[in-house]
Queue: 3 jobs
Job 1
Amino acid sequence: MEEVELQLRLNPEMEEFFSSSRNEHFFVKNLETIQGDERDVIFLSVGFGFDEAKRLSKNFGPLNQEGGERRLNVLISRARERCVVFVNFRASDLDIEPNAPFGLRALKTFLDYAENRNLQSLVQSSEDTDSPFEDSVYSFLRSNGYEVRKQVGCAQFRIDLAVVDPNSPGKYLMAIECDGAKYHSSPVARDRDRLRDQILRGLDWKIHRIWSTDWYRSRRDSEAKLLTALKSARESNAQNASGTMEAEKNEHESHMLDQDAPVADSYQQAPVDNGISVDDYKTCTDLPFTNHGDLHVQNPKKLALNVIRVVEAEGPIHFDEMVKRIRSLWGLRRTGDRIINALRKSVDVAKTQGEIKARGAFLWPRDLKTPKVRKRNEEPRPDIELICPEEIKEAVRLVLKSQFSTVPDELSVATSRLLGFQATRDDTNRKIQEVISEMIQSGELEEMPNGLIHFK
């Protein structure tokens, strides 16, 4: 708090954001006192970590106690949009045992996700393997000095054997998949695991498969290939770690050189880079009929010309957005009931003339069948209730054409980014998920047993 007070003295223009009379003012709280408060962005500082001797204690105060995971859950769920974590160690530095306190295991999982977007299961690895074949591979790895954990993960993403990285005990070096004869002869199983492997590799898992027939018929060959793969993985990890340390050193040196330079405000919700380009939303900039006195007393047929112009420029457009555009171009600041009623009559005239069509609250150009996906920036600001379901569907199709298949939440986020949302709030996600469900029910999309969604 002393540092905050110092910065406020240096930047007095920020004081209004700290006033207790302000709705959702800035606060500093600890793990025990934050319950009940929410903010769009939460800065989370982990007060435990490496000491001056580079020792990392596994004592994290309340998290080590019973119910520590609930306190952590309360803390990290206070952020509506973004949680920024400050900590002097990585998740991989925190080497914890399977029987460590649940709160400590939850912290490691959270830090791993914050750093790598890698959400691991908190289910403990099993002590049992599925077959004598796996037992044999496990014993071989142990005899060569590797620490191995069995049945890591859950459901269809459970890994037979996971080899711990000896240079970073909090990470896995490689996943070993032990496939029996039935698997080898089953094209369905191979196709299913091809997609599963793709997902795991996307999460930075290195995977090595061993066939049971090869293991027993060409044992020395299989053992040599396994050790070579592990050696290659260790060398790759060591190079990556060296590169990361060098990059961090350069970044630190650069920061030290530039510490007196003005700092630009770089805050924004991190975008999803899906490699898809869409046009920006373009608003109507002029009206054929305007500035002839009070809007609500104008001839509905004359006002219908304005409605048609806005719908042709921005359709499909929500009725409320159309009203806002005409009001603004007319030079008005507010919209009353009389103006809304006048424009409703004008919409009816335009529909009767066959110049526009209506689908629910959305107004469409006469000949438009399929809407373009448009990215909303400052004007209009993105509002999911003001975007028609047909445009949301088109955005979903663009994402799936690019990614082929993805899980529902990621599909929703990528879709929202195409439409201009910098953050995907609950109401936005809910609306997009409703559209995705409709596409699944209509048979256009299919949700596979592993949760991925793709074109049917």
Job 2
Amino acid sequence: MPRVHKVNALAAGRTRSAGAVAFAVYNPSVCGSRRPCSARVDSNCGGKGAPIPRHGLSRMSATHKAHDHAPAMRVEDFRLVTGTGKYAADWNLPGQLYAHFVRSDRAHAEIVSVNVEKAAKYPGVKRVYTGEDAMRAGYDKFFVIVNWPGRGGEPIRKPPRPALAAGRVRHVGDAVAMIVADSALAAQDAAELVEVEYRDLPAVVTVEEALAEGAPQLHEAAPRNLAFDYEGGNEEAVKAAFANAAHVTRLRLEVSRVAPNPLELRGCTVQYDPGDESYHFYVCIQGINMMRKQLAFATDVPEDKLVIHAQDVGGSFGQRSAAYPEYCMQMLAAKELGRPVRWISTRTEGFMTDTHGRANTVTGELALDRGGKFLAMRLDWLGDMGAYLSATGSASHTRNPTTCMTGVYRIPALYGRFRLVFTNTVPVAAYRGAGRPDIAYVIERLVNRAAAELKMDPAELRRRNFIPPGAFPY
């Protein structure tokens, strides 16, 4: 096995601060040398032209050929492993205030009252915001990518989403109030003094429960909790193929909900500049332009007045592509109070409020002829959107699967119905492939089940149905 040694960073020809170290790997099975490889490769390396190991950190393809030029080295590693990276929590601005959010401890309830009187008087507290403040500012809408019609020309339904809950909470973690104080501890202490009276409502936590007749309704604008009804493919051609099939495989699958949970906690610091009426965001993000567009939509602030500062990001996975409600409330506070407002979430908040991924329930059918050739595939796809629409979830659970419905197989007829459903759970967004791994999983499970039912080698069934080279581009 390769050994990991701590080596002086100067061995790599780099300057370092006192006590800084780098890590290097060497594998005696490659070159027989007991000298650790440093951060660069030089002519003294005994492994030049040596066999490539099958295992270990330095594994490469056996067909790899050496280059005459020096290898291109990664430039960010030394800075990150020596603790000099800059993440969202590392930004600190002069005079900054600290935000803390009061969150719902129930999945579905009416908000009878929010009493912030005691919290507002707590030492160090500058302001307490509630859903009334969010609604007064007009912060009740968020950007959604889907702008194309669904089945029968029906548009997607986009219920309001206040930046702080107003009138009702719809999932555990829904933010009800924001405390802004001189210190993070003062904001947290004051949050304990906010008194929220709820009237509990029945909750639905699965898509099938949510679509059932008489189910509790999350939004007036989305009857039967249906956000979008979308289809792709040729329904009539699929019906005809199934009618003539020698064998039909059916399977119901759960593509389970996941919490991406990046190592870096979500955080943002917002500064308002009254000179040019601009907002500066120091935030963990996945794309600057995407963040600006979403924030502009949510707050009606022009995009050119939104300045995004980002350096290092400790994991994104689709989850960091959203402009979250907390950032909008920080904008409101930063402008009103005239000081930067910083918020860094806890790990618990991350599980309750950072968008989740996957959460699809799929019934799939595969039609085959007597020779094991695929004739058609039909899908009934239920995508859980959680309590509110995110920017990307509606696209990752409709458009993306439809573009990958054949997988790697020649399937003459395809049809999928994709329904997006509201539930009393954390909102869902794009995650690691954004619907494409989900459809691949569904297809391959159908193929495996068909092989088992036909008592055929799964590899042979796949071989018979692969898209042939001559059919590309397919």
Job 3
Amino acid sequence: MKKIVLTRKAETGPEFKVVRPLGPLKGELSVPGDKSISHRAAMLASVASGRTELSNFSPSLDCLSTLTCLVSLGCEIHKKENQLSIVGKGFGQFRAPAEPLFCNNSGTTMRLLCGLLAGSDFEATLDGDASLRSRPMERVLAPLSQMGLKIVKNGPPPFTIAGGKLTGIEYVLPVASAQVKSAILLAGLQAEGKTVVVEKIPTRDHTERMLAAMKVPIEISTPAFDPSTLEGRLAKEEKEKRIAVMRAKSLASLSIKIPGDLSSAAFLVAAAVLVPKSKITIREVGLNPTRTAFLNILKRMGAEVNWKVDEERAGEPVGTITARHSGLKGTKIAGEIVPNLIDELPLLACLAAVAEGTTVIRDAEELRKKESDRIAAVTANLRKMGVKVGELEDGWAIEGPSELAGTAIESFGDHRIAMAFSVLGLVASSETLISQPECVEVSFPGFFDALEGLVK
């Protein structure tokens, strides 16, 4: 059987992956545990009462960074493959780290740790790799400093914080960010009085669901409005959401099998949609409604993709996705849906290259502040493959369908760029070469093996 993914070493320089246009893709599989849920489960387990058992914990480098930092803070963590046992000791029991907490490439680790450590009576320095050092942290440090966190050394990473006595605040998120929201809520569990986070645009709600599962009182509300008045109509239009917590006496420990990561499954779903005669089924994947926007957009573009919820785990819906080869049509993606598919937008831009008509993606300027400038990275690589694409300040205008040329793709060391163009390479006219393919380990270890395993 011919392989669709090969490892090849250049005469000089590192290895790269070669993706060949073969197929179809068929079969059933599961994907590694959800990265967002794994981060939060580990951090909350570290301050819970008693032992938490986590299975199918994400093997991603990002989540391993979280575990490494927690161990540096004195947490007792027992790990065997993707099974974890974490002994929680409650808030205020962390020890001062002997060295800076190195978060590698993980913005979630860095931002959530700021909230988790906000009530601790010691200083901690947080640092990361070159990519993380370039990403914005003021958005999380600003509200936490309003609550009482001291910024000993400000600026981009590395920065130093000192925890202490915290006071609850009401904070309106200026930028839709589940990470900032979660950091404030983690600090709020250690603060005097009520802490309220106000969202104008909904974001991932994994933190809220897990806190509720751990028996933490949490209030989630939207304001009442009178549609007969201008003020009421404006309130409805804003769809404001308020999430409130008080100081927590304790968090109940959990035993949970982490659902499969929908953001990882998205690449395999997209591959099945693209490659003729393909049909795949992905089981035990997380179907949180704040994460399924990608599937809804695929449906709108004409993809034959279906999903159903089979069960619930710690407040998270878990189920099955089925996808088959489909023709696609262009669409427009903008507005409040964007924060809930920000990770999948580079992949959708690649799908737009083979869709009939023009696809316009706007309001995604946040992509310029990820592991790479993803707007520029996608633009450059699509043009290499022969796609007509206009780069916008906050997205793209992409004309399709295009005859895709196999070419050398620059991943910029960004896992989502590498995986998105590996998928698109399956329907190129010749081999597609992916640089720095090891970067996929950040979120989806085994991605290339999973893709190869679906070839029939």
